[in-house]
Amino acid sequence: MAIIRSILTLLFCFFTCGAVAQLQQITDFGDNPTNVGFYIYVPQNLATNPAIVVAIHYCSGTADAFFAGTHWAQDADTYGFIVIYPQSPYEGTCWDVSSEKSLTHGGGGNSNSIANMVTYTIDQYGADASRVFVMGTSSGAMMTNVMAATYPELFAAGIAYSGVAAGCFYSDSNQENGWNSTCSGGQSISTPEHWAEIALAMDPGYDGARPKMRVYHGDADTTLAPQNYYETCKQWAGVFGYNYDAPEEVQSDTPMAGWETTVWGPNLEGILASGIGHDLQVQGAEDLKWFGFTIEKYHDTLFCPFRGDAPEDETGTERKRKRVLVPGCGRGYDVIALSLHGFDAYGLEISSTAVSEAESFSLRETVNPSPNNFGVLGDTTSKYTPGTARFLQGDFFDSAWSDALGFKFDVIYDYTVWLCPEPGNPA
């Protein structure tokens, strides 16, 4: 009976106790000049050529606390990626984002140790070097910005929760792990160009691709003043060459009520949370989307042009068409249907043959939609101004195909969700 009870307990824990594997400490991973702790989570269902997420804890935190208190280990079990949890070596466990050695590529500071953890993990587990991501909260967010500036070649994307711009905590006396009250109080204010110069100077010989960045901050933060949100966004806007004063889009109540998302371009988004202090809630599902582990799923009605996405508004002024990406578009049915509904739709396929076949099919069906293929959708040309249907070759999880596009998609389409019904018909 005791054996049965033990088995039931193990089964219950498997389904309810979170991460299945264990956090491991690695002590021999190459140069570690500042004695940063290296803890790693490798899921039992490790993917082939897995991605890596570097999750950096806050002041007073530890690797174990960040492992237990964030979603990354559970998500690693689902998606098969590896999570690196660095641990600060200092009393109080803040990160060194103030000394010259940590603010310099190969300088021998905390950032150098974390970079060596990444290269060790890539080599040890055959990880995908093009899918390495970094995130952190508070002091960990400061280090996230520093990692993106000092080792841009290592990371595809970063997420900083309640941090400051890279270099903002710089110490005139070159103090290691120093506190900068001017920066924390929101008094370090400069231009996008100047902030970009600071970030670029951390790895002056580098001219390659840089990680796209998402910046979160609460507008009631009394630990790291909200002005740091604006300064961080200025920095990355300057790095990517965006006009900070003219963002591409501002979205209210996104991703939560009272939160505002500002999009400067495909490589930079800022999210300001109204009424939220320093303890900003990490957005697990949003993190996974930003890092490309999931694609955004929309309810059917969000695809309906007659419910808000029509090419013209009530004044007759043409709206910006929404651009929709359909990964794994196959023959192109969904791409064509979306274009018939007034969207500019792009299908993505790995195979050049599949792209050619979809283009041929699209040429026929967008000119004269067949009811046999699309049913009532074949009649949408009488209701909506059709958009375009285009096809791209590439792997959704490799950003190389999108580098030359120069724009961000408004919607990533989940092909398992069909389009909305015609007006007047129930969903």
UniProtKB/TrEMBL annotation:
It is found in: Secreted. InterPro entries: AB_hydrolase_fold, Esterase_phb, Plant_Biomass_Hydrol_Est, SAM-dependent_MTases_sf, TPMT. Residues 1-21 form the signal peptide. Its EC number is 3.1.1.-. It catalyses: Deacetylation of xylans and xylo-oligosaccharides. One of its GO terms (molecular function) is hydrolase activity. Pfam families: Esterase_PHB, TPMT. The keyword Glycoprotein applies. Keywords: Carbohydrate metabolism, Glycoprotein, Hydrolase, Methyltransferase, Polysaccharide degradation, S-adenosyl-L-methionine, Secreted, Serine esterase, Signal, Transferase. It is an enzyme of class 3 (hydrolase). Gene3D superfamilies: alpha/beta hydrolase, Vaccinia Virus protein VP39. Acetylxylan esterase involved in the hydrolysis of xylan, a major structural heterogeneous polysaccharide found in plant biomass representing the second most abundant polysaccharide in the biosphere, after cellulose. Degrades acetylated xylans by cleaving acetyl side groups from the hetero-xylan backbone. Esterase involved in the hydrolysis of xylan, a major structural heterogeneous polysaccharide found in plant biomass representing the second most abundant polysaccharide in the biosphere, after cellulose. Monomer. Belongs to the carbohydrate esterase 1 (CE1) family. AxeA subfamily. This is Carboxylic ester hydrolase. It comes from Aspergillus lucknowensis.
